[in-house]
Design a protein that fits this description.
Layout: E1 7-14, H1 18-29, E2 34-38, H2 45-48, H3 80-93, E3 98-100, E4 106-110, E5 113-118, E6 121-130, E7 137-138, E8 152-155, E9 170-173, H4 177-186, E10 192-195, H5 209-226, H6 232-244, H7 253-259, E11 262-264, E12 267-271, E13 274-277, E14 287-290, E15 294-295, E16 314-315, E17 318-319, E18 325-327, H8 341-369
Parallel strand pairs: 1-2, 1-6, 2-3, 6-18, 8-14, 9-10, 9-14, 10-11
Antiparallel strand pairs: 4-5, 5-6, 7-15, 12-13, 16-17
Helix pairs in contact: 1-8
């Protein structure tokens, strides 16, 4: 820290989840001066705070970050708490400079570097890697405020287990992976409606021995090496996923039917304090779980790096026309697996390679200027 209270590093990584930790590994291997800032109180908390029954879709053999195996048998499907504890142990064992409880609120250009602020803290760095991931602020439709106050409302980011809900029926809005998982759990104890367009599903049971050892391996290969921004098929799928979302992986339609989950159309509004479906019916329910995804709020990045859709403009995580600014963990940043644990390491390695190339060029230019 300088005498002026400002801390200086070569690189600052914003976000201490899987993307930020993978970036940290590659920066440490290169001997780069850096720090990782994370808003959570403990490494892995982004996973600890998700619903209790959540498990990964990929077995442990594919869930390791670079430099440290996942501590479970290769075919085990880890729980969310096992993932969180692994990340915590990873940061400690590799001695990554993670600072928890630090929420970044500003990134601004300063000469040929950047100033990053977090409350009263100030950092001056050559480059910034934004690794806050795909799960930003919960996205909830505006009409949710019109629901009767007696109805319990939770976003999937807040849902932990059925004990949080009132007695009575529950409407789960959003039929993707989180909506399907949570609906199946809730249907054991209460009437459950699942609202939204069917995004399709993987037609195999991923928890079987054959699926874990053959099918998941195939899906991972396709998602990592075939569905990329370099292939016509990958670019087509990326566009499709913007509107449809990912297919449901673990839960099958017949399982929802057998559990008594009632499939209904999209929820479009409110009438007399009750949710209204697209085809007209009004549901009299006691609870609503919003499985409606997240919006990525990067308004604290005060640079002209966003397109008309509000998303950052980049090439494989290297910000367009903004030297020194990088991303890791964006949905389909380069491949279908870019925002999940099996895919972040490759993107992190690529981004750090580009970052170090720029640092070497800067160093040579400074030497010539001197």
């Amino acid at each position: 820290m300088g005498g002026d209270g400002v801390e200086r590093f070569g690189t600052l990584v914003v976000g201490g989840g899987q993307a930020g930790l993978a970036v940290g590994y590659h920066l440490a291997q290169a001997g780069r001066s850096f720090a990782i800032l994370d808003a959570n109180g403990r490494v892995g908390d982004a996973w600890r705070t998700r619903w209790d029954s959540l498990r990964l879709f990929t077995p442990a053999r594919y869930d390791a970050l670079p430099g440290m195996r996942f501590p479970a048998s290769p075919g085990h499907m880890p729980t969310k708490d096992e993932v969180a504890d692994y990340f915590d142990a990873y940061a400690e064992r590799l001695e990554l400079p993670v600072r928890t409880g630090v929420r970044v609120d500003g990134v601004e250009l300063d000469g040929d570097g950047y100033v990053v602020t977090a409350g009263e803290q100030r950092f001056e760095v050559e480059d910034v890697v934004i690794a806050t991931g795909a799960h930003g602020s919960p996205r909830i439709p505006a009409f949710a405020n019109e629901l009767d106050r007696s109805i319990v409302q939770l976003h999937s980011a807040e849902y932990r287990n059925p004990s949080q809900l009132r007695e009575g029926g529950v409407l789960v809005v959003g039929a993707g992976n989180s909506g399907a998982d949570i609906s199946l759990e809730l249907a054991r104890t209460r009437p459950t409606w699942l609202s939204g367009r069917d995004p399709g599903h993987i037609p195999v049971h991923i928890d079987t021995f054959f699926a874990r050892n053959v099918i998941v391996r195939l899906i991972r290969f396709v998602g990592t090496h075939v569905l990329t921004m370099r292939t016509p098929l990958g670019r087509k799928v990326a566009k499709t996923l913007e509107h449809r979302g990912n297919p449901v992986v673990r839960v099958k339609p017949k399982e929802l039917l057998a559990a008594g989950v009632i499939r209904v159309p999209k929820t479009v509004g409110v009438d007399a304090g009750r949710p209204v479906l697209q085809d007209g019916p009004v549901l009299d329910i006691a609870n609503v779980i919003w499985c409606t995804g997240y919006r990525q709020d990067l308004s604290w990045v005060r640079r002209p790096i966003f397109g008309e859709d509000g998303l950052p403009l980049h090439e494989r995580g290297v910000a367009t026309d903004e030297p020194g600014l990088y991303f890791v963990g964006l949905p389909f940043q380069y491949a279908a697996t870019s925002d999940v644990i099996p895919g972040v390491s490759r993107d992190a390695r690529y981004v750090v390679t580009r970052l170090l190339e720029r640092a070497r060029k800067r160093g040579r230019a400074e030497t010539l200027a001197a």
